[in-house]
Amino acid sequence: MFSTQTYTNRRDRLANLMPGSLMLFVGNDDASFNYHDNQYRFRQDSTFLYLFGLDSACMAAIMDTASGETTIFADDVSMDDIVWTGPMESVADRAARAGVSKTRPMADLDACLKRAAAGGRTVHYVPPYRGRTIIKIAELTGKTPAEVKTGSSTELTKALVKLRSVKEQCEIDDMDRQMAFGYAMHTAAMRMAHEGYTENDIMAQVEFEALKGGGPVSFPTICTIHGETLHNHGYTHPLEAGRLLLVDAGCESPNHYATDNTRTTPVGGQFTTRQREVYEVVLAANNAVAAAARPGVTYKEMHMLASRVIVDGLKAIGLMRGDTDEAVAAGAQALFMPHGIGHMLGLDVHDMENYGEDLVGYDDEVRRDSQFGLASLRLGRRLQEGFCVTDEPGIYFIPELIDRWKAGHICEHFVNFSKLETYKDFGGIRIEDDLLITKDGCRVMGGTRLPSTPDEVEAEANSGNNKSRGANGRDRLTQEN
Ligand code: GLY
Ligand code: MN
Question: What is the DSSP string of 286-335?
């Protein structure tokens, strides 16, 4: 948790944006895994964390900016709770650390909202994303679950987007610190990119490094030799020489700020000529964005910049042809990069995505495009100092997509489909860094960039004496640790 002042300042700023309003904030409850008492690791709602910092289940809060009163609703633990889960500070003491002096039992929340409804007050809440929260708000407001889902407050959501988009120094410090664990996750994976391991072995090591950082992983780890599947969550394949291992993984700090990096390593620790060529194109796109991202440019422009670099690079390899600008205008590069260049990063790995991608990543000036590939760009609007964003270009060879485009003669003037046939077993490459937008540019968060050039990746992959582990690989790793 940050200082008490951090939370009171945030709520003061929100109050200024939402005068005369009644706002309801519902924290998350525990969620059952396979039976009631066997539960997922608890994750507090990010809006609740941002405004109150209180990281435990079964809490809610009301901010009334007409009366100036903020109340936290929660119950003190019972003797039964103490016996099973241990003692916990009183609600009043915890609320005080968030700068809130008024607390009430949870049972009072219903009456409080009924009084507000009787007085004709609108209850503002952000879009709920968990079934339990939707049902709770429905019970509290007398709406149906469907009405709750459509009835969230755009005004409140926009106000929170405005505040949360620009990171405070304490948030930047927290994220910078956590990047060391992200670094350890990815370099561990690079050193294990050798035959004798399975994807599951490496995923386990990556998540071990994440858990050492005090928080959970920030999203399900992607650790695959089939990187052409963008969000591949299977871990069944043994590593095979000649393939590329793509690891897209991050961790949460104890305050729940996320890291999100991707690196791609050749199995066996040496790129083939063909892999190195494609890798250099992806790296050039990543570097171009990092060199150009600054306050005032739109992230859509950065997406288009990366797209041009990718088309130029693939033309040099002989996989694309024609005029670069025309190819990008036609969306031809989306055959190779069917996703956006990046997203906001913060308390959520796709920061604030529960508020709605368009409210977070777009505005009246920059609208989401409907073209394949560009339509998946999560962040398009103008950058400001203090934004944290990902820079994650990729090139993928998706056999089914290649076949579809070829059969449909899609962008055939720009794509060399006959040469592309020979790349269908290639897999995919993505290189993802986390950038802080600074006053006149940007910097990689955490200070130390992960190994990035092909030589750096090869050096890291070969630095652990892990080559040719064969069947003994796992045993040896266990001994080394
Ligand atoms: N790192 C996962 C994603 O950005 O979707
Ligand atoms: Mn990402």
Answer: HHHHHHH--TTSBHHHHHHHHHHHHHHHHHHHTSB-S-HHHHHHHTGGGG
Name the E strands within 141-239. Answer: 222-224
In DSSP terms, 24 is beta-bridged to 62
The three-class DSSP label of residue 241 is coil
CA 441 → CA 125, 239, 386, distances in Å?
35, 39, 11
Render pLDDT for 137-186 as a digit per residue (tens, 0 to 9). 999 999 999 999 999 999 999 999 999 999 999 999 999 999 999 999 99
Cβ proximity of 193 and 267 under 8 Å: yes
Question: Ligand 1 centre from 427 Cα, in Å?
Answer: 17
pLDDT tens digits, 59-81: 999 999 999 999 999 999 999 99
Of 210, 185, 193, 188, the C-alpha closest to 427 is: 193
Q: Which helix (H) or strand (E) holds 32?
A: strand 32-35
Q: Which atom of ligand 1 is nearest to the CA of 262?
A: 1
Answer whether 433 contacts ligand 1 (Cβ < 6 A): no
Q: Which tokens belong to 251?
A: 């961790």
Question: Which residues fall within 8 angstroms of residue 380, CB to CB, at 6 or more apart?
Answer: 298, 299, 300, 303, 361, 362, 366, 367, 368, 369
